[in-house]
Amino acid sequence: MAAVLRGSRYLVGRSFNHVSSRSMASKTPVGFIGLGNMGNPMAKNLLKHGYPIIATDVFPESCKEVQELGAQIVDSPAEVADKADRIITMLPSSPNVMEVYTGSNGILKKVKKGSLLIDSSTIDPTVSKEMAAAAEKMGAVFMDAPVSGGVGAASSAKLTFMVGGAEEEFTAAKELLSCMGANVVYCGQVGTGQAAKICNNMLLAIGMIGTAETMNLGIRLGLDPKLLAKILNMSSGRCWSSDTYNPVPGVMEGVPSGNNYQGGFGTQLMAKLISTNTKTPVPLGSLAHQIYRMMCARGYASKDFSSVFAFLREEEGQQ
């Protein structure tokens, strides 16, 4: 497959050094599709680093902030692909990714040969592989690069990217991802980024439930929640859910628990993403999956997954 000088329509032989060709065009336009809670601050960080952005979102109002900062807004993913040969997508689910890439107005309708397509959505690894195969047929390169860190890390450019795809393309992808994250890790072939994210999500889901149970227990035993959180965070029980994303309202500022669990990582999405089809024994993971599914049935589907604390309180009749 031929490589392309990013930002140009001139194709060069595969023998031409990939890294040098892409670094030469480092400030050419970058496409960005999906400007929600995560995509919006990620696109802003690319703008801060001097990259011209060509963006679109299914909800036009989501484009206003980046447009005010200088991004060019277009009507469809296909139009983004027509104007940029490096594109980042950040979408809610596997069906959304399939539509954006292969739909009637999708990226692959107008993608240029040699384009680099980076999907930072958290989706099924098999869908990533399908999109990679479809992109390859069009002469483009697809990489999966899901993230960890949440909205706060997206805003402060401290995300962790787990990247799957052709290793020779990793340097080109890292150039862009490093503008939005503190850690960019190559995991292997397409789909391995998503595999790493599934493992991280499972641990996060289990840890959040444990933190919520612990905080609720402490409150029931008469401890002040802020004091309990302080003690946990200087002790062996410390974890991300306790020190960075505490689920108890009033303990921390700038997290979903302080905003009626709005924004962040939805409970319904968490329930979906920790479901696995492997035969590996995951007793705690399975129990966490059941709890988040129960939450969805009780009206917590659109709330952040840390709302498991509110769910537990409701279960004991305190709300």
Automatic annotation (TrEMBL):
One Pfam family it belongs to: NAD_binding_11
Cited InterPro entries: 3-OH-isobutyrate_DH-rel_CS, 6-PGluconate_DH-like_C_sf, 6PGD_dom2, 6PGDH_NADP-bd, HIBADH, HIBADH-like_NADP-bd, HIBADH-related, NAD(P)-bd_dom_sf
Q: What is its EC number?
A: 1.1.1.31
Q: Which GO terms describe its cellular component?
A: mitochondrion
Q: Which residues form the active site?
A: 197
> Span of the secretion signal?
none
Query: What main location does UniProt list?
Result: mitochondrion
Citing just one GO molecular function, the answer is: 3-hydroxyisobutyrate dehydrogenase activity
Could you tell me the keywords of this UniProt record? Branched-chain amino acid catabolism, Mitochondrion, NAD, Oxidoreductase, Transit peptide
Enzyme class, one word? Answer: oxidoreductase
The residues covered by the 6-phosphogluconate dehydrogenase NADP-binding domain are: 30-188
Provide the protein's localization. Answer: Mitochondrion
User: Hey, which pathway is this one from?
Assistant: Amino-acid degradation; L-valine degradation
Q: Superkingdom of this entry's organism?
A: Eukaryota
**Keyword Oxidoreductase included in the entry's annotation:** yes
BP-aspect Gene Ontology terms: L-valine catabolic process
What PANTHER family does its record include? 3-HYDROXYISOBUTYRATE DEHYDROGENASE, 3-HYDROXYISOBUTYRATE DEHYDROGENASE-RELATED
What is the similarity comment for this entry? Belongs to the HIBADH-related family. 3-hydroxyisobutyrate dehydrogenase subfamily.
Could you identify this protein by its name? 3-hydroxyisobutyrate dehydrogenase
According to its UniProt entry, this protein's organism is Takifugu rubripes
Per the UniProt record, the lineage of the source organism begins with: Eukaryota, Metazoa, Chordata, Craniata, Vertebrata
Q: Which gene encodes it?
A: hibadhb
